[in-house]
Structure formats: structure tokens, C-alpha cells
Task: structure prediction
Amino acid sequence: MAQGVSSAGIGVDKPIYTLSVASEILETHPRTLMMYESVGLVRPQRTSTNRRRYSQRDLAKLQVIQEFTRKHGVNLAGVRLLLTLMVLLRDRGIAPPGDLRSIDVSLLEPAQ
Result:
């Protein structure tokens, strides 16, 4: 399978999910996703009418953010740092600490 393409043939970066659909998939309030965007953890693409559209990559990143905040009790500043560190560990072939080994960072890009 080509990198960046899901098994259904849709690219992981294709912006296909609206805010309401993404929040339903993630079982969270739409305002929470807007807050994650406002602090720079995720950047959904925008339509010509300025509507948010989330990709599979965005949803994967949001799931990791939720795991950090819900399961591990990390605040958003800590999440930003952990996302960067997890990607650096992955890129250097280093296994993350025990509690974080279940987190899939294969679709993550470093937080900016």
C-alpha cells in the first residue's frame, strides 16, 4: 500500500470530515476540536466558505491527543511536547516508554 493512502484508496491527507462528523467519530464536543485548533495542535483544512475539513491524519492525531489527555491526564502544553517527542523517538528508531508504547504515531507529524 502506498504511503499516505488508506486501504479504501482515499489519501490520509484528503480533507473529508466536517467538524460535526469528526467530533462524532471522536466522541467529543465540536468546541473541543476548535480549542485544539486554536492552540495549534491540529490544523484542519478550510473550504472556500471557511468550513473546517478534517483528514484521516487529523483524526489519528486527535485520537492520540485524546489518549494523552484522557488516559494520561496531560494538559495541552504537555500534549504538544509529547507529540513532538513521540515523533522524534519514532524517527530515531527508539521505543517509547512503556505506558506510551500503545500509541500509534505512524500518521503523526510534529506539532508546529
Q: What stands out?
A: Residues 26 and 66 are 9 Å apart (CA to CA).
